[in-house]
Structure formats: structure tokens, C-alpha cells
Amino acid sequence: MIADGVEDEEKWLAAGIAGLQQNAFYMHRALDSNNLRDALKYSAQMLSELRTSRLSPHKYYELYMRAFDELRKLEMFFKEETRRGCSIVDLYELVQHAGNILPRLYLLCTVGSVYIKSKEAPAKDVLKDLVEMCRGIQHPVRGLFLRSYLAQVSRDKLPDIGSEYEGDADTAVDAVEFVLQNFTEMNKLWVRMQHQGPAREKEKREKERSELRDLVGKNLHVLSQIEGIDLDMYKDSVLPRVLEQVVNCKDEIAQYYLMDCIIQVFPDEYHLQTLDVLLGAFPQLQPTVDIKTVLSRLMERLSNYAASSADVLPEFLQVEAFAKLNNAIGKVIEAQPDMPILGVITLYSSLLTFTLHVHPDRLDYADQVLGACVKKLSGKGKLEENKATKQIVALLSAPLDKYNDIVTALKLSNYPRVLEYLDTETNKVMSTVIIQSIMKNKTRISTADRVEALFELIKGLIKDLDGAVLDEVDEDDFKEEQNSVARLIQLLHNDEPEEMFKIICTVRKHILGGGPKRLPFTVPPLVFSSLKLVRQLQGQEENPFGEEESTTPKKIFQLLNQTVETLSNIPAPELALQLYLQCAEAANDCDLEPVAYEFFTQAFILYEEEISDSRAQITAIHLIIGTLQRMHVFGVENRDTLTHKATGYSAKLLKKPDQCRAVYACSHLFWVDDQDNVKDGERVLLCLKRALRIANAAQQMSNAARGSTGSVTLFVEILNKYLYFFEKGNPQINVAAIQSLIELVTTEMQSDSSTPDPAADAFFASTLRYIEFQKQKGGALGEKYEPIKA
């Protein structure tokens, strides 16, 4: 059926164009022979094609444009006729004898255009006559196109101030009167289209009306171009009459489009000075009109106007723009009780943007807007609609974008209250936006109160909100979110130790409720922030004033012990062990032996009870040995205990090569360069000999299991340790021991049962080259190396 209709329409259009072209041909012939009577006859027949009711507006427009082109040629002919002495008044009378009213009015408008140009009569009289005559066509589509033609031919002939057609003192009023009258009649025709035809074709009619809206809106554009309209005339006459027409037509499509037109075509300055009148019309519009979009566009234009120059800001204060807009939004929401929540949020979002542009110093205004939004949201529960939550994110992001400072946003008491209406996912998005703003602007958040307020805002990332299921979260997204929280924790700083300690306690309170998946991300930055404070306080054992409340390293270490313990309970033993060792090192630098010993104890307990994976054990034991080697705070007894533990665990690793490497690493625990009390050559030698025995056992096991002794890498590594302690002056490491070890490696490499290993060969060759290099270098060290035969 639809296809048939379209085909029929195409046929009718083709027939219309054919008829039009045929009559245009005869008209041209008459024009060429200066035959006025035939020219009028064929032009009237050509224009009769526009009387059709069968075409849709879109197709009718095609036909109209062809007729329009021909009428321009006819107009030029009429101009020539008047030059040749033909009376324009007679011509104006003559065209009115055309048989049908539609061709007659098109010809009248065409001649009227020439009549005005001739200046034989005042422009206002001719225009008034034409606009009145056009009432003769009441068919919506035909009438709209006719009046559009009138507007087109008259736009450069209005009796405006400064125009060549300017009339008496009230000339601008006459121009306005003509345009307004044409606009009013066109709007009536446009609205009437809605009520013609069956109800089932409502959508089709609305689409057709949408195609024709620019014909009506063009009048407002012409109106805005009239030079004679000053602010007083706009305020007293033009705007009230346009708004009266808009409100009275009671048509949803027309009201939405025309209100938008008014906002777009007239100057911002006029809008500002007539806010009362303009805003007064909004609550009177039909309940189905999308007021939120139009009102938002108005506020956007005014925001841009305010941003364009600082000189215009006093005007905004003078007219109390904020109060009027705020009041208007309240009335619009009241007048439309069924307005969806998205509309409400959009309106307040636009008002907040306006406020931040016009009154950036008035935080109370911004808070007032957020408060009004909270009031409308109350009782709605969490918002589920995607568009509404996005709009709230836009609303809450506006202060961040304007002030580039979360600290200012934290002063808005209603800011966190709006956040509460977001669902869990959007809450996370907003929290991420807040953190990104802090990162981008390097905002300093330096008091515990502000940290408390900030962490309340971003709690969606810090802990599970009501009903949130963590298992459903994408792993990569989760990591990214938690890493951003970790970066935020690192940014929090205050130079005052007391306040910094309060900040650390505040952060700790918030993050400890984050659950086992979050703690491995958030505890380490908190620990390192605390250690930074410890370094700041280094050397301060007790407060000189004796106040118990003061922050001391000991107090921070107590907090750290409890904090790291939460990781071992998750469990995340490897991470907890690393953090215990970091804390032990900091305690060492503060000369707090009992504290350092306690951290080492906790690390060993974790190693014994929690770390069972062999790879994790290797990493852990090397970390323990490395940290213990750097400790200078321990007395003999404590150091012996810890060293004994470390060497014991080293020898108990699962694989022999791992045992060997850990045991020879322990040799460094008995010989520390910058500590004279830790230079026990015998125990170093014991460790190295034990490592040799383990290396030997590893070869035998390999031989028994695989039939080859395997690589000699371990022996070369031990040889390098011998050389290290030999250089450091350990009396127990002598030339004979090194010589025998070189020979051992050489023998092993030449053995039939050893596995070829190019890396081990290169390592050994490099070691021998080093010995030769030291010999050639000479000096005291060269003399020591001299007896060694490489």
C-alpha cells in the first residue's frame, strides 16, 4: 500500500512538473515577444499546478521551487515593462483578474515586489494589502508555501530604519507588524495540519509538519534582522506578541520549535533583559513539550554570553538572572508533574553550569542548585535509568571542571547527597572522575577533615556498597580502579606530622573495610606514606614536651604493625612479608631495635606458616637475607637469633641449587663492610663450605637421576663469592682455597659425565679473566692475586 502511494505521488509530481514546464515554455515565448496578456495567461496556468492537494510537503516543495524560479523571470519582465512605460498600478490591477485565487495571489505578490521597488506607493501599504489578501488561501500546505513566497520576495523591501523603503516615524513598527502578521497566519496554518486527516496517520502528519517548520521559523529570523527593533520595542511589543501566539496555539510541536527559534535568533542581551517575560511562558506550554531541552539551551546561551566578556557580568547581577532561572525551573517542574527524572536533572545540570559561569564566586548558589536537585530526587531511591545517571555524573562533574579543585567541591554540602542516588556502577564512574580531577590538577588535600569528606565521596571504589557483587566486576577494570585509589593515597600530604598522622588514620579507617580483593592494592601505599612520615620524624624518640598525644615513630610503627597484619589475614603473605621487611628497615634507621626485631619476627612467622610455594619461598628468603644484611640496630644476641633462623631456612629449601644459592647468600650476614662488629670470617667460610657441599650433593643427585653431573654453574658462583671475601680481606679465605676451587671447576668441566653448558663456560672464563686483570693492574690487590694460578 505504501509503495503504491509513493509511486502514485511520483506520477502526480511528474505530471505537475510536465504541466508547469509546458506552460512555462509558452510563458517564455510570450515574454520574448513582449506579449503581456499571454504572459499573464500562461503564468496563471503554470501556477495552477500548485493547486494540487495530492503531494506530500516534500514533493510539493520540489514543484514550488520550479515555479519560484519561473516567477523570478516573470518579475524581471514586470520590471522591464514598467521601465517601458507600463503603469505598475495598472499591472497590479491586471493580475487580479486571474481566474483562480492561488495563481492570482502568487502573481500579485510578484507584481507587489516590483510595485514596492517603484516607490509609487508606501511599502507598508502594499505589504499590508498583500498579507491581508493571502488570507484567501486556507489550505495548510498551499497557504504556507504562498506566505513563504511573500516573505521571500518582501524580506529586502521592508520599511525598516536605514532601508531605502523607510517610511514615517513609525516605520519599524510597520515592518514588524507585517512580519508578525505573516508569522501568525503561517503558524495557524502549520498547526491546522495536525488536525486534518485520520488519527492513524498522526505520525505521518507530524513528520510532514517537521519538514515544513523552517518556513514558519524563517519569519522570526527576518524579525531578528530588523534594524529598527531596539530593546524597548522587543520587550514591549515583539516578544509578548510572539509568545502570545506560541502559548495560544496549544500545539506541542509548534511550541517546542518556536521557543527554540526565539532563543536561537534573538540576541543574548535581549534574552537577559526580558528573562521575566520569556520564562513566564514556559509553565504555560503544553505538558508534553520538551521544556528541559529548550530551557537548557537558553541557559547554555546565557552561560556562553557571560563567558564571552567580563563586562556583561554586572547585567546578570542587575537582573538577578540566577534567582529568576531557579524560580522558573521550579515552576516548570511543578506545572509538569509527569516530567521524567531525567528532565529534572538536565534542568538543574544546565542551571549549575550557568551558575558556575556567571557566579563562580557564589558557592552558595551552586549548593542551592544541588540542594534543589536532592529535594526532587528524594524518595526515588537509587537511579537505574542510564541517561539519568549519566546526567548526574555531568551535574557533579561541572564544579570539578570549573574550579579544577576537589577541595572547593568538598565545600558544597549537597554534593555528597546527590552522589547517594547513583547506582553502584555509576558511583564508581563518578569516583574515578573525582580522582582523575585530583591527579590532573595535582590538588593538595592536606587536612584529615577533607580526606574524610573525599573518601566519603569515593567510597564506591573503596568498599562494596549495598547490594554490590564484587565477583561480577571485570578484573582489568577493578585493577585500574584500585590503582587509581592507590595513587590518590600517595598524593595526600601535610608537612605537619600531627595532621599527617591524622590523615593516615583517616585513610586507614576507610580502606580496611575494603575486603580481601582491595587491601593488596590500598595497604601498600598507606604503609609507604606512613614510612615517609617516619623518615620525617627520624631520630625523634619521645616528644620533648612530654605530650602523650604527639606523633612519634614508635606510635606510627604500632599502627603499621596492625595494618600489615590485615594482609596476612586475607591472606596475602608474600606482600605482607615484604611490607614487614620495609618497616623493619625504617625501624632500623630510627634505632628502634625492639620494633625492628618484632617486624622480623612477624616476617619469619609468615614464612613458616603461610608461604608454602617453593618459588615464593626462594624470593622471600633472599628478601629476608638482603634486609637483615643492611640492619645495624641489632645487638649480638638478636642478630645471632635472626641470622641463625635465616641460614636454617636457606638450607631447607626444596631444590638443592636453590639451597646452595640461599646458603652462600647467608655468608654476607657474617661480614658487613661498614660494621666492624659484624666481620666473622670463620662463619663466612662455614657458609661457603656448606654451599660447596650442597652443590656437590646436587651434582651427585643429578648423576644418579640423569646419568650426568649437570652444570658447574653453582661452583663458579661459589668461586665468585670466595673472590669477593678474599678482596674484602677475610683472613679465612686464602689463596689455597681459591686455587683448589679453580681446579675443582676445571676438573668438573673436563669430566665426561658433566653436561656441556656454554653459559657456565663463559661465566668461568670471565671469572679467570678478572683474576688476570687484577694481577696486571698491580697495587696491593694485584699482589694478593699474584699467587693464584688461573
| Major sheet details | none
What amount of the residues lies in strands?
under 5%
Shape: elongated
Number of strands: 0
Give the CA-CA distance, first to last residue: 103 Å
Structural class: mainly alpha
Task: Compute the CA-based radius of gyration.
Answer: 45 Å
Number of discrete helical segments: 38
Helix content: over 70%
Question: What is the typical, i.e. mean, pLDDT?
Answer: 91
**Ranges with pLDDT <50 over ≥5 residues?**
none
What report would you give on this structure?
Its main location: cytoplasm. Belongs to the VPS35 family. The protein is mainly alpha-helical. The protein has 38 helices and no strands. The chain is elongated and about 135 Å long. The protein starts with a helix and ends in a 5-residue tail after the last helix.
List the helices and strands and how they pair.
Layout: H1 2-32, H2 36-48, H3 57-83, H4 88-94, H5 101-118, H6 123-133, H7 140-154, H8 171-192, H9 202-225, H10 231-248, H11 252-265, H12 268-273, H13 275-281, H14 291-308, H15 313-318, H16 321-335, H17 341-358, H18 363-377, H19 386-403, H20 406-410, H21 415-419, H22 424-441, H23 448-457, H24 459-462, H25 475-491, H26 497-511, H27 519-536, H28 553-568, H29 573-589, H30 593-609, H31 614-630, H32 636-650, H33 656-666, H34 681-706, H35 713-727, H36 735-750, H37 758-777, H38 779-785
Helix pairs in contact: 1-2, 1-3, 2-5, 3-5, 4-5, 5-6, 5-7, 6-8, 7-8, 7-9, 8-9, 8-10, 9-11, 11-14, 13-16, 14-17, 16-17, 17-18, 17-19, 19-22, 22-25, 23-26, 25-27, 26-27, 27-28, 27-29, 28-29, 29-30, 29-31, 30-31, 31-32, 31-33, 32-33, 33-34, 33-35, 34-35, 35-36, 35-37, 37-38
